[in-house]
Amino acid sequence: MRTNDNVVIHPQSDSTLSAKQLEDNFADIHPPLTDTTVGIEADRCYYCYDAPCTAACPTSIDIPLFIRQIYTKDTSGAAKTILDSNIMGGMCARVCPTENLCEGDCVRNTHEDKPVAIGLLQRYATDSVQSTGKQLFERQADTGKKIAVVGAGPAGMACAHQLSMLGNSVTVFEDKNKAGGLNEYGIAAYKTVDDFAQKEIQYIMDLGGIEIKTGMALGRDLTLGNLQKDFDAVFLAVGLAGVRALDLENECADGIQDAVDYISVLRQSDDLKNLSVGDNVVVIGGGMTAIDIAVQSKRLGAKRVAIIYRRGPDEMGASDVERKFAQTNGVDIHFWSKISQIVTNNNAVSEIVIEETKLAEGELKGTGKMHTMQTDSLFKAVGQLLDNEVDGINQLQCDRAKIVVDINRRTSSEGVWAGGDCIDNGYDLVVAAVEDGKIAARDIHQSING
Predict the structure, then answer these.
(1) For 169-195, what is each residue's pLDDT tens digit?
(2) Which of 4, 27, 23 is nearest to 273 (CA)?
(3) φ and ψ at 150, to 5 degrees?
(4) Which of 102, 232, 304, 335 has the most crowded CB, counting CB atoms within 10 A?
(5) Concatenated DSSP letters for 242-256?
(6) For the chain, where do the domains classified as CATH 1.10.1060.10 start and end?
(7) Residues 264, 448 contacting (CB under 8 angstroms)
C-alpha cells in the first residue's frame, strides 16, 4: 500500500492493537491545565525582574508578564503577550524542549523544588484565545508591496504573519498539499492532537493579507529568478528535504525507511490500524526524530524497539526528558554503537551488525567488537540535508549544507532572505524557526518600504 511518493507501507505486519488501544496510545501526552490548576501554577512564579526564563527563550517572550496576566485572569492579555513574540506560541508550548530553555533556567529549578510549568501555562493562554478564534492582531495600512515566502512551515508562516501585520501582501508557496511544515508532518502525533497545527495556521490566515499556494516547489514549479522579478522580496523557508544516507550495502532493502517520511504518513493517517509496524524495530539516530519514530512504533504495537546511537547520552540531540520518555515507553537505547552491516533475506532486512564505538584522542572510532540484532523494520533518523542542487539555492552561498545568512537573515543574493532549518541558526527547533521568520520579516519590511 503506497501512501506517498517516498514511503511504501507493507501491510504484512499490521498493528494487532485495537482501535481503542491506538486511540489511547496517541492521546495528548501533556493534558492541559484546568482553570483551577492554572491559578495554582501561576502563583508559583516569582515574576523575576531580570527573568532568566525570558533570556532563555529564543523568541524572548516576556514570561513573567504573561504568567502574571494569567494569575489576574487576563487570559487574552497573556495570549497577546505570547503571540506578539511568537505567533506559534501554541505549538511551541507543546513541542519546545522547555527543560533546556525557559524552565531549565527558572530560578525555582533546584534540587529542592521544580520549575514553574511555563510550557503548560503558555498553552493554556494561547489555547484559550485561539479556540474562540478571537483575533488579537490587525493589519496596518496596505504598503502595496508583495513578498514571496517559499515554505509554509514555522519560519515561513511566522514571516508571512509579521509581514502582513505590517501591511504587506504575502504569497506563500508550499510543496505539500497542506501548510504547516514540520508542525503538520514531522512531529509525533501524541504531541499535537486534534489537528492543532491546522488550527494554528488558520489563526494566522485569519489576519488577512496572506495567500497560500500548495503543490508549488522551488526548482520544479518555481525559480528563484522569477520570484525575484515578480515580488519585492523573497523569503526562503524550504527546510531540509534531503535525508542522510547510511552509505551501507542493502540500504534500499524492503523494511528500511526514512523516519521523517514515515512520521509524515502517520500524521496524515485517518486510521492508525491501517499502518503497519514491524515486530522488531530498529532506529538509527539520536535526535528528536529518532525518539519520535521509536516511541510511535512502540505505541503502534511493535514488540521490540531499539535505538542505535553512536555516541553517549550527553551527546544525543534529543533532550534528557525525551530520552527518558522513550525508555519509559519500552524503547531500548544502545549507546556507543553504530550500524556496520545490513543483512537481508529475500531482499528484506533481517538483521543488522552493530559495532561498539569509543572516543580515542577526541575522535569516534570503532572498537572491532561486533554483535547482531534481528530486525524486520529499520528506520533511518540520522539527519536531513538541504537540497542545494535546486535551481536558485545553488546560486546562494552555502556552508556545511546550509544557506549562509547574516544577522538579519539576508542571503548572499540581493532581495532574498532565508530562515528555519535551511540555515544554521544554532537550533533545530520550531521556536528558533519562528524567530528567524520574525527577524527576516522586520528587515524585509524596512528594506522594501524605506
Answers:
(1) 999 999 999 999 999 999 999 999 999
(2) 23
(3) -105, 105
(4) 102
(5) EE-----TTTTSBTE
(6) 35-130
(7) no
The class (CATH top level) of 11-27+245-380 is: alpha beta
d(CA 361, CA 366): 13
Instruction: Say how far residue 341 (Cα) sits from the centre of its chain.
Output: 30
Cβ contacts of 303 within 8 Å, gap of 6 or more: 279, 280
236/312 Cα distance (integer angstroms): 35
Could you tell me if 274 and 20 are in contact, meaning their C-beta atoms sit under 8 angstroms apart? no
Looking at residue 400, what is its pLDDT?
Answer: 79
- pLDDT recorded at residue 26: 96
Q: Which fold has domain 35-130?
A: Fumarate Reductase Iron-sulfur Protein; Chain B, domain 2 (1.10.1060)
DSSP 420: G
Q: How far apart are the first and last CA of the chain?
A: 54
Domain 146-241+386-449 CATH (choose: 3.50.50.60, 3.30.420.40, 3.30.420.10, 3.20.20.70): 3.50.50.60
Q: pTM score, two decimals?
A: 0.92
Only one residue has cell 540581493, namely 414
Kindly report, as residue ranges, where domains of CATH 3.50.50.60 are found in the chain. Answer: 11-27+245-380, 146-241+386-449
Residues of the chain where predicted confidence (pLDDT) is lower than 70: 1-15
The rounded distance, in Å, linking the Cα atoms of 316 and 100 is 13
CA distance 275 to 338: 28
3-state DSSP call for residue 73? coil
Burial class for 20, CB neighbours closer than 10 Å (0-12, 13-18, 19+): exposed
Report phi then psi at 172, rounded to 5: -105, 125
**Which residues neighbour 70 within 8 Å (Cβ) at sequence distance 6 or greater?**
38, 39, 42, 78, 121, 124, 125
Cell readout for 253 is 532493502
**CA angle, residues 330, 335, 336, in degrees to nearest 5:** 160
Integer CA distances (angstroms), 161 to 138, 154, 179, 298, 337, in order: 10, 11, 14, 38, 44
